[in-house]
Write a structure and sequence with these properties.
Elements (H helix, E strand, L loop, with lengths): L1 H10 L10 H11 L5 H9 L2 H11 L13 H8 L1 H16 L4 H20 L8 H10 L2 H9 L1 H11 L5 H10 L3 H11 L4 H9 L11 H21 L6 H14 L3 H13 L2
Helix pairs in contact: 1-12, 2-3, 2-6, 4-6, 5-6, 6-8, 7-8, 7-9, 7-14, 7-16, 9-10, 9-12, 10-11, 12-13, 13-14, 14-15
Length: 274
Amino acid sequence: MQEDLRNAMMAIRGIKIPEFPKEVTELDAEIKSRFASAQKIVAIIERNTTISGEVIRLANLPVMKAATPVKTIREAVSVMGLSNLYNLVVIAAFKRMFSGTGLHRDISDHSVDVAFCMAILSESVAEVTRDEAYLVGLFHNAGSLMLASKDEDAYSKLFRSGLSNPVKVLEQEEAVFNTNHAMVGLLVGKKWQLPTYMLNVILLHHSSKVSRISDDKVRTFVAMLKVANALVAEISLGAYIGEEMQHFLQDGVEELMLDSADLTELRNHLLTEG
């Protein structure tokens, strides 16, 4: 593992991993403090007008299912709760860091689509919250964004290949970069101090068989990512996915015990709301 991490570091040498805005760190510390202050939390978020505006927009998305419309950060604290609100701030910060054009935009848009599908899928999976599922979907391809920053031309073909060949693509990335986007994503996640389970999900999200993953939470999220990635790829590629992606999808479906009606509903959501 240490050698793999060193190879990942060498692969993106010269490319700076974006820093989360200081508001994210301050918010995390305040929420975890013994006497967390709602007033202070509101002040921290409102200090960054870009993030606060995005948080309000995200809180009002149908996929978040807020009990009442959110017009201010103070209302978001009341409606969403501190944990959910923190996740929305992290989502907003991520979108701000990786806004761009070309391949970066394509990867980012794909991650948003997967995140949306994950949030919808969470309704069929026990003990997984919508915002947590959205967060995992948004972060899972962070390594791809870094490799695209290193060599956009070289990585463009690999990213497209991964939409049909989600297992083989890691070998293809290794041949070009001497690492893969899952390992680079682990580096990024460590830098951002993501939870341990999320780091493992990022590392393992292209596993050929989820049954090989021992941790229940990690296995569930990897299965969800398999389903979400396959459905997003299916729609992106004009209702066609390769044999490898079909097996990828089936493995996730079996783990989550989904049926054809569940998949139809997910497709409909992606087509009409995604």
